Amino acid sequence: MRTRLLAAVAAGTVSLLGPAACTSAPAPAPVPSAAASPTPNPYGIGAIDPPTALEPVLTVTGGSTPLSLTLDTLNALGSATVTLDEPFVKRRETYSGVPLAAVLSKAGIPDTATIDTVGLDDYHYISTAKPMIESRALIATDRNGAPIPYDQGGPIRIVFPDDTPLSSVLDAWNWSLASIIVKAPAGPGS
Q1: Which of 123, 130, 143, 160 has the CA that lies 20 to 30 A from 24?
Q2: CA-CA distances (angstroms) from residue 58 to 67, 100, 139?
Q3: 2 CB contacts (<8 Å, ≥6 apart)?
């Protein structure tokens, strides 16, 4: 499903901006530039304008404190950096961002809650927060010292350090993250 949706976005037949921004005519094909990458984009979509400084990149709902975070307000919640084997492009990359645990704490979401991480392409990964926290999930805002472009999984995405339980669960690596929604406030026995 995700691959088909990303391909539709790349073809211009679906918009990441929602139904109001969609038109019936497909977008014109992108014009290649001299600086174009010689390898295909592993995320399957073309370039999209980066968010403005005042545009929220992440909403968090269902906890005691709803959040609507710009890149600056997200980055103000904490900082961590990890170098890892990125499984989609199959190379070592360094990501900086905010630990998921810090965002959930700010939103008043316990680690026993079931959360749904939702990408801009409407991709969902649902999990209890605890295994994601124990795997040191990072909401990455920067890759290799630069902002992460939309067409490469940005502007924010979830990554996991090597050798953590979720580092090999590719479904959990939600790129172009848009929201975190509490599906169930607390798990059994909490």
Answers
A1: 123
A2: 8, 12, 10
A3: 119, 121, 123
